[in-house]
C-alpha cells in the first residue's frame, strides 16, 4: 500500500510533534512544509532532510503524492485554509480548535462531509495515556455511572511577548478556544453525555492588560445531571511546576490522579520541577487514528465532537463576560 | 483547673449521633474538661440535638449563662444563627460551632502560611471535600457538611463570600464562590459510595489548592498521616491530635479568655453561603449572599 503523503502547514513549535509522529508511522510520509515565512519553511524542510517547502498552500496542494494536510497555523486561519483543503479533496488533521466560531466549525464539517474526506481536530489529550486510561476505566463500569469530573491542567506563562497571536482573541478565539477546548472535549468524552450548560470564570492573572484569560475555570453541566469542573491555566507561578490533577466520581467509586500521579519530582538547586513520565506518544496515537479513519475506520475524534468543543469554548467566553450560565446545544 | 461540661442531646441530621461518636470521647480524653451529669453544674454545654431543636437549645443555654459547643450546623436557618450571634454577644458567653475541620493540623499550617503571604496574594482556592459511605443526610449533603469546606476556605483567605453559583445534585454539589478583591474559590462537596479501606463516612478526598500571585500551596487535609499496609488492611493512620481535640482546645481557650478562635459569626457567614447556594440551585443562576 502506498504511504499517505502529508503536507504540514505552519512551521511553529507544534509542527515538530506532528512531524515526529509521521516519522514514527510507516503508513505516512511527510511530503513538504508550508509556512508564510519562506525562511522558516526552508529551515524546517532542511531539518526534515530536504523535503519540499513553499510559502503558500496552493503550491503544496499541487505537489505529487499529497493526500492529506496537517494544519498548525493560528486558529483564525483554520477555517479558510481548511475549506481550501476540503475543496482540493484532501484529508485534514487540524490543530484545535477546529475553528474560532461555531459557524466556521459547522462550515468545515459540511465541507469535508461533502468532499467525503476525513476531518479530524487535534484534541490530543484523548490520545494521551492518562486520557485513554480514564476513558477505559469509566467504560469498564468499575466506578459506575460517572457524576463528576475534576480536571486541572495548570502551568505558567509559555507564550512569547505581546506579539503572540494567542494573546489576540481575534486570532486565537480566546484561551477557551485555544486550550480550554482540550479539557472541555476530554471531560465530555469521558462522561459520554451531552452538555447542556456552561458556567465559567476567567482571570487575567499574568497582566491586567491581557486580552485573553490566562486562567480559566469552566463548569459544564450535562443532560444526566453530571458536572465537569475544568481548570486551564497559563497563569500559575512558579511556571516551572506544571500540574495536572483529575478526579472522576461515579456511583460506584472514584478515579484519581493527583499532581504527582504521573510525574516524578526534581528537587534541584534551580528549584523544584515535575518530571513527566516518558509514556506513550499521544501525537503518534492521534496520527494513527487519523490514518485509520482515512482507511475507513470510525474516527476516534469525530467531527461532531470537534464542533461541540467549539460550541463549548465559545460558551465559556460568553459566560465569563456575562457572569451567567450559558445554555448550550451542540 | 478543669472546665465542667454537660452533654445535651445525641441527635443531629438523619441518624447522626456526633455527641457519642465525637464530642463525648474527645471531652473525656481532654485534660482540660470534666464531663458532669447535670446541666446546672456545667460551665459548658455540648449541644448535639436534632437540627430542628438545636438553635432554640443553644439560645436557651446562652440565656442561662452557659458557654456552648454546638454541633454543626449551629442552627437550621440564617435567622436563627444571627439571633444566636446577638445573644452570645449580649450574654458574654463563648459559643463555638463545631467547624472542626479548619483545625486540622495541615489546614492550620496552611492558613498561617497563606495569611503570612507565602503564596503572595491568593487569587483562587480549589477544594474537594468528598466523603465515602456512611448514612446519606436526608437534607442533602450541602446542608449537612457543606459548611465545613466553606468555613475552611473563609479561614484560609480571611475573605467573605459575596456571590455564589451552585450546581450539581444534593449529594454532590459544586459551589463557585466570589470573594472580595476578585478572589474566587470552588468547592466540590458531597458523598460517594463506600470505598474499600475507608471507614464509613470517612473522607475519601479532602484537599485544597491555594493559588497566589507568587506560588501555589497544595494541601492534603487528610494528612498528617501514616500509610499503614498489612495483610488485611491498607489505609491512613492520622498522626497527632484530631480535629475535634483541637476544637476542644479552642473551647477551653475561649472559656479561659472570654474569646474563642471561632464563634457564632463564623456559623452565620457559613450559613449565608449555604442558603445562597440553595437559592442558586433553585434559580439556576449565581446569587448574592446578601451580606
Characterize the structure shown.
- Chain B: Residues 108-217 form the GFO/IDH/MocA-like oxidoreductase domain.
- Chain B: Belongs to the Gfo/Idh/MocA family.
- Chain B: Keywords: Oxidoreductase.
- Chain B: Residues 41-98 form the Gfo/Idh/MocA-like oxidoreductase N-terminal domain.
- Chain B: Pfam families: GFO_IDH_MocA (PF01408), GFO_IDH_MocA_C3 (PF22725).
- The complex is a heterodimer of chains A (330) and B (291).
- By secondary structure, chain A is of the alpha/beta class.
- Chain A has two domains: 4-123 and 283-299, NAD(P)-binding Rossmann-like Domain (Rossmann fold, 3-Layer(aba) Sandwich); 126-278 and 310-327, Dihydrodipicolinate Reductase, domain 2 (2-Layer Sandwich).
- Helices cover 35% and strands 26% of the residues of chain A.
- Chain A contains ten helices and 15 strands.
- Chain A has helices spanning 13-24, 38-47, 57-61, 78-87, 102-115, 129-139, 169-172, 175-191, 282-294, 303-322; strands spanning 4-9, 28-34, 52-54, 68-71, 91-95, 119-122, 146-154, 195-203, 215-222, 227-233, 243-250, 254-257, 264-268, 271-275, 326-327.
- Chain A has a seven-stranded mixed beta sheet with strand order 12-11-7-10-9-8-15.
- In chain A, helix 2 links the parallel strand 2 (28-34) and strand 3 (52-54).
- Chain A is globular.
- By secondary structure, chain B is an alpha/beta fold.
- Chain B has helices at 18-29, 51-63, 78-91, 105-115, 141-145, 147-157, 243-257, 264-283; strands spanning 3-8, 33-36, 44-47, 67-70, 95-97, 122-132, 161-169, 172-179, 184-192, 202-212, 215-220, 225-229, 234-238, 287-288.
- In chain B, helix 1 (18-29) links the parallel strand 1 and strand 2.
- Chain B has two domains: 3-99 and 244-259, 3-Layer(aba) Sandwich (Rossmann fold), CATH 3.40.50.720; 105-241 and 275-288, Dihydrodipicolinate Reductase, domain 2 (2-Layer Sandwich), CATH 3.30.360.
- Helices cover 35% and strands 30% of the residues of chain B.
- In chain B, helix 2 runs parallel beside helix 3 (78-91).
- In chain B, the strands form three sheets. Chain B has a seven-stranded mixed beta sheet with strand order 11-10-6-9-8-7-14.
- Chain B is built from eight helices and 14 strands.
- Chain A binds chain B through residues 144, 147-148, 150, 152, 154, 197, 199, 201, 203, 205, 215, 217, 219, 221, 225, 227, 229, 231, 233, 235-238, 241, 243, 245, 247, 249-254, 256, 259, 323-325, and chain B through 120, 123-124, 126, 128, 130, 132, 165, 167-169, 172, 174, 176, 182, 184, 186, 188, 190, 192-193, 195, 204-205, 209, 211-216, 218, 284-286.
Amino acid at each position: 500500500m502506498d504511504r499517505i503523503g502529508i503536507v504540514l502547514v505552519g512551521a511553529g513549535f507544534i509542527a515538530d510533534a506532528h512531524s515526529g509522529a509521521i516519522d514514527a508511522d510507516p503508513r505516512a510520509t511527510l511530503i513538504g512544509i508550508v509556512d508564510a515565512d519562506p525562511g522558516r519553511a526552508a529551515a524546517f524542510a532542511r531539518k526534515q532532510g530536504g523535503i519540499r517547502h513553499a510559502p503558500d498552500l496552493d503550491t503544496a496542494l499541487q505537489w505529487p503524492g499529497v493526500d492529506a494536510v496537517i494544519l498548525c497555523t493560528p486558529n483564525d486561519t483554520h477555517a479558510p485554509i481548511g475549506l481550501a483543503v476540503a475543496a482540493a479533496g484532501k484529508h485534514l488533521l487540524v490543530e484545535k480548535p477546529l475553528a474560532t466560531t461555531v459557524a466556521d466549525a459547522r462550515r468545515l464539517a459540511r465541507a469535508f462531509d461533502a468532499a467525503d474526506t476525513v476531518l479530524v481536530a487535534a484534541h490530543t489529550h484523548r490520545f494521551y495515556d492518562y486520557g485513554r486510561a480514564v476513558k477505559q476505566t469509566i467504560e469498564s463500569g468499575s466506578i459506575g455511572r460517572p457524576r463528576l469530573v475534576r480536571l486541572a491542567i495548570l502551568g505558567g506563562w509559555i507564550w512569547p511577548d505581546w506579539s503572540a497571536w494567542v494573546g489576540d482573541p481575534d486570532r486565537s478565539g480566546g484561551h477557551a478556544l485555544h486550550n480550554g477546548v482540550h479539557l472541555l472535549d476530554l471531560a465530555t468524552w469521558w462522561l459520554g453525555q451531552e452538555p447542556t450548560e456552561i458556567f465559567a470564570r476567567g482571570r487575567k492573572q499574568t497582566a491586567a492588560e491581557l486580552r485573553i484569560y490566562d486562567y480559566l475555570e469552566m463548569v459544564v453541566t450535562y443532560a444526566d445531571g453530571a458536572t465537569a469542573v475544568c481548570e486551564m491555566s497559563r497563569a500559575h507561578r512558579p511556571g516551572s511546576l506544571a500540574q495536572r490533577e483529575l478526579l472522576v466520581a461515579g456511583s460506584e467509586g472514584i478515579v484519581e490522579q493527583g499532581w504527582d500521579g504521573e510525574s516524578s519530582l526534581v528537587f534541584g538547586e534551580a528549584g523544584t520541577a515535575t518530571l513527566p513520565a516518558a509514556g506513550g506518544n499521544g501525537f503518534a496515537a492521534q496520527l494513527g487514528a487519523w490514518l485509520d479513519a482515512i482507511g475507513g475506520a470510525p474516527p476516534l475524534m469525530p467531527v461532531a465532537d470537534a464542533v461541540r468543543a467549539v460550541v463549548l469554548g465559545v460558551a465559556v467566553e460568553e459566560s465569563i463576560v456575562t457572569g451567567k450560565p450559558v445554555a448550550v446545544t451542540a | 483547673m478543669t472546665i465542667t461540661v454537660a452533654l445535651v442531646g445525641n441527635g443531629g441530621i438523619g441518624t447522626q449521633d456526633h455527641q457519642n461518636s465525637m464530642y463525648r470521647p474527645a471531652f473525656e480524653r481532654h485534660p482540660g474538661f470534666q464531663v458532669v451529669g447535670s446541666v446546672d453544674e456545667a460551665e459548658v454545654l455540648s449541644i448535639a440535638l436534632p437540627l430542628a431543636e438545636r438553635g432554640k437549645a443553644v439560645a436557651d443555654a446562652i440565656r442561662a449563662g452557659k458557654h456552648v459547643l454546638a454541633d454543626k450546623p449551629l442552627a437550621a436557618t440564617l435567622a436563627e444563627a444571627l439571633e444566636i450571634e446577638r445573644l452570645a454577644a449580649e450574654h458574654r458567653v463563648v459559643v463555638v460551632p463545631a467547624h472542626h475541620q479548619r483545625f486540622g493540623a495541615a489546614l492550620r499550617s496552611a492558613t498561617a502560611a497563606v495569611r503570612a503571604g507565602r503564596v503572595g496574594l491568593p487569587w483562587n482556592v480549589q477544594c474537594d471535600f468528598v466523603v465515602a459511605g456512611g448514612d446519606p443526610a436526608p437534607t442533602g449533603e450541602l446542608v449537612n457538611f457543606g459548611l465545613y469546606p466553606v468555613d475552611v476556605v473563609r479561614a484560609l483567605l480571611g475573605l467573605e463570600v459575596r456571590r455564589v453559583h451552585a450546581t450539581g445534585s444534593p449529594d454532590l454539589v459544586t459551589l463557585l464562590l466570589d470573594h472580595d478583591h476578585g478572589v474566587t474559590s470552588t468547592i466540590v462537596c458531597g458523598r460517594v459510595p463506600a470505598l474499600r479501606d475507608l471507614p464509613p463516612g470517612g473522607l475519601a478526598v479532602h484537599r485544597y489548592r491555594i493559588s497566589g500571585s507568587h506560588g501555589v500551596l497544595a494541601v492534603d487535609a487528610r494528612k498528617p498521616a501514616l500509610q499503614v499496609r498489612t495483610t488485611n488492611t491498607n489505609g491512613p493512620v492520622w498522626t497527632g491530635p484530631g480535629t475535634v481535640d483541637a476544637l476542644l482546645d479552642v473551647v477551653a481557650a475561649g472559656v479561659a479568655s472570654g474569646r474563642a478562635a471561632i464563634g457564632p459569626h463564623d456559623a452565620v457567614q457559613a450559613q449565608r453561603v449555604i442558603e445562597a447556594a440553595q437559592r442558586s440551585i433553585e434559580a439556576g443562576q449565581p446569587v448574592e449572599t446578601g451580606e
